[in-house]
Write a structure and sequence with these properties.
9 strands, binds adenosine-5'-diphosphate, binds guanosine-5'-monophosphate, 4-stranded mixed sheet, Rossmann fold, alpha/beta, 5-stranded parallel sheet, globular
């Protein structure tokens, strides 16, 4: 077990990577993190990358959703046109891909993105929806499966509103999907409640560190 300290590291510049002070031999692991939209997955993972000593790195997914203000191509996502996305799909470039909010946009994990990072010994974190997560687990059964839960359903509505990125229609669709996703949480090996952010980040780190 690593004695890690809950202190943001001032020298961390790339927010998509942890410090990686612990070197783990061999090919890196796949860590799937799922949970309903607005539960705080992104926020929690940023925190975990700050405090973990493991060689964690976020996988950058491809999507047809347009960038939100402040999002940059290649950082939060690879933003593709539907044509570009479906060409990659035809070419078999995706480890998994789905239309996440039905009738909405496509999201997918690129083989190249995950494999190049694993080959470099990184533990690659995939923040993806449940259908994508279960598809990854089928393909790579030794993936670490972590589901992030809200304390209760009302919290989701509040957090989505607080983030301020969704129209009322999009928030409604996301909440419906959230309820369906919560029913599949039992398929994940680990479940973490994101109530107090620091406690949830610590719990997630403990799960990962116990795998060394
Ligand atoms: P997700 O990635 O799951 O869609 P976000 O990380 O964007 O969710 O978080 C949604 C909103 O909830 C953001 O405004 C974020 O600041 C807030 N949030 C996340 N975790 C917590 C927490 N533990 N306590 C309070 N607010 C939180
Ligand atoms: P957002 O539009 O808020 O960034 O993401 C919406 C949803 O898409 C989230 O639940 C997120 O986990 C999921 N998602 C992001 N990337 C991928 C991916 O590559 N594959 C799948 N299946 N879902 C993804």
């Amino acid at each position: 077990m690593i004695d890690s300290v809950f202190q943001p590291c001032q020298s961390a510049t790339d927010q998509s990577q942890g410090h990686g002070r612990v070197v783990v031999n061999g090919k890196g692991r796949i860590i799937v993190v799922s949970g309903p939209s607005g539960v705080g997955k992104g926020t929690l993972l940023r925190e975990v990358l700050q405090i973990s000593e493991l060689p964690l790195v976020l996988s950058v997914s491809a999507t047809t959703r347009p960038p939100r203000p402040g999002e940059t191509n290649g950082v939060e996502y690879y933003f593709l046109t539907p044509d570009e996305f479906h060409q990659k799909r035809k070419n078999g470039e995706f480890l998994e891909c789905f239309e996440v909010f039905h009738g909405g946009h496509w999201y997918g994990t690129l083989h190249q993105e995950v494999e190049s990072k694993r080959d470099a010994g990184k533990w690659v974190v995939l923040e993806i929806d449940v259908q994508g997560g279960l598809a990854v687990q089928e393909r790579f059964p030794d993936s670490v499966m972590i589901f992030i839960r809200p304390k209760d359903r009302d919290v989701l509505k509040e957090r989505l509103a607080q983030r301020g990125t969704e129209s009322p229609e999009s928030a409604e669709i996301r909440l419906k999907q959230a309820i369906a996703e919560l029913d599949l949480a039992e398929r994940y090996t680990h479940q973490v409640v994101n109530d107090d952010l620091a406690a949830a980040a610590r719990e997630l780190c403990d799960i990962l560190e116990s795998l060394i």
